[in-house]
Amino acid sequence: MADVDYLQSIIRLYSDFPKKGVGFLDIFPIFRDPIAFETLITHFVHHITSQTIPKSLHKKVDVVVGLDARGFLIGPIIALRLGAAFVPVRKKGKLPGECVSATYEKEYGSDTFEMQSDAIKPGQSVIVVDDLIATGGSAKAAGELVQKQGGVTLEYLFIIEIMFLNGYQCLDAPTYSIIQHLE
């Protein structure tokens, strides 16, 4: 697909960042280019409307959940295009009111995500979005938050998937990534 090649050509790889031995894939050049940003959003919306929604029970997406923080950059726009609500998943202590929480493992310990406890109604169809899936821990935690509120995750969407880490295997719904990074 031409749009995938186009987006992949804009993403930058920084070796040894944030630490030696790590290759950091920088998506921010996409956001600095209005055509690339529109291509990204349009690609996701086309995938959701042509692949995800037709396979879903209710034939719609009620809620788009975006993970802290890069999921906040694409989630609200996708939600707006779909006529769905946007719900943020934040790190512990960043949301007001009553929250549900889920803990996940990171490279150097654990972290906790939260979602406001009235953000998703039982039975609502949900899509979870983030910039990248590596081990899948943060996306899994977001899925647990959706499940705790009675929502149904239709799919997890990512700009980039680090293929060799097989992060999709720990998730409770299908995944879709625009760019599959092999290294």
Summarize the model shown:
By secondary structure, this protein is α/β, with parallel strands linked by helices. Helix content is 33%, strand content 34%.
User: SS-based structural class?
Assistant: alpha/beta
Oligomer: single chain
- Note the main sheet: 7 strands, mixed
Radius of gyration: 16 Å
Q: How many helix segments?
A: 5
For this entry, give a set of tags.
single chain, 183 residues, seven-stranded mixed sheet, two-stranded antiparallel ribbon, 5 helices
Explain what this protein looks like in three dimensions.
It is a single chain. The protein is 33% helix and 34% strand. It is of the alpha/beta class and 183 residues long. It has a seven-stranded mixed β-sheet with strand order 5-6-4-3-7-8-9, with helices on both faces. A two-stranded antiparallel sheet has the order 1-2. Strand 7, helix 5 and strand 8 form a beta-alpha-beta unit. Helix 1 crosses helix 3. The chain is globular. The model has no long low-confidence stretch (mean pLDDT 95).
